[in-house]
C-alpha cells in the first residue's frame, strides 16, 4: 500500500460533544474533557484544503465523515491500548505521530507511547516496523529503550522509556534565560553520550539517519539517542529522491540516497552547532538551495565558537564522508580537546 507521507495532517478543530463522548467513557477519559481520538481527526491536505477552509472550526464531524474508516479503526485501537495503559497526557507530536505519557495499569510504571497517525500498511509505518525489528533487542545506556510495540486495528503503537525532555527543549530553556545556546560544558556531555550511542549502532551495522536535537533526549541529566524510525542496516538500500530525514541535518550523500555511519556523524555535528549557538550552521533555505549549501559547506558560526573548534566541526561536516572522523567518539574527543572556552555570556536586551 503506497501512502504519500506528508498527505495527512492533524486537525485540532473543536469537536462536538457527541464525537467527544465516543472516546471519553470510562478508562479512556483524559484530563476530564480531552480524548485521544480528538487528536486523530485526519485531513488530506492535498485534496481537502479548500473544503477545510470553508468549514467552521466546530465542524470536525465533517472531517471525520471523510475518514470514517480511519476513525473507526482508531477507536478500537484506543480501547485496546486503554486496557493495559492509562494515557495521561500528550507529550509531543511530529509529522507522522504523537507521543503520550502512559501509566501501566498493573504496576503504575510510567512509560511513553508513540502512536503513528497513518495506517500500519502505509510506508511510514512499515518503515518504522522494520526499524523496530532491527533495534528491539539492542540495550545501551545511551539509547532510549524500546520496550514493546504492536499493531492493533491497523495502528502502530510503540512503548518506550520515558525521558525528561529533548535537547531542543533544553536549548529553548537556556534561550529563555538569555543565553545563545546550551553552555559548552553541559553540551559536551550530551554530545559525547549521544556519540557513544551512535557508535554502538554503527558497530552493529546500523545507521540512525535522523540525528537532530529533537531525537536526542535526556534522562536524569544524561543523553540518549531516540526515534529509530529511520534506522537501517548498512546493506539495505535507501529510497529514491523522496528521501527521508530532516533536510537541515542531512549529510550531502543522503540527498543522493547513500548513507552510513559518517552520515550520522555529520548530523550530530550540525546538531551540536545549533545547540551551541542557538541556530543551525545554515540558514533556512528552499530545499534545493539547502542541498547545495550542504554540499558546498556554507556554514556560519557564532563568535563564541573558536577557530580551532570550527576546524573540527568542518571536518565532521565535510562534504565527502571519507574526509570525516572515523567515528562519532573520535569527532567529540577532538572537539573537546580544542574547546576550553568559558560559558557563553548572556544576551543583552
From TrEMBL:
Alphabetized UniProt keyword annotations: ATP-binding, Kinase, Nucleotide-binding, Serine/threonine-protein kinase, Transferase
Matching SMART domains: S_TKc (SM00220)
Domain Protein kinase positions: 85-349
Keyword Transcription regulation: no
Binding site for ATP: 114
Stored Pfam families: Pkinase (PF00069)
Taxonomy, superkingdom: Bacteria
GO cellular component, one term: cytoplasm
GO molecular function terms listed in the Swiss-Prot or TrEMBL record: ATP binding; protein serine/threonine kinase activity
InterPro entries named among the record's database cross-references: Kinase-like_dom_sf (IPR011009), Prot_kinase_dom (IPR000719), Protein_kinase_ATP_BS (IPR017441), Ser/Thr_kinase_AS (IPR008271), Ser_Thr_kinase (IPR053235)
Name used for this protein in its record: Putative serine/threonine protein kinase
Species name: Gemmata sp. Wa1-1
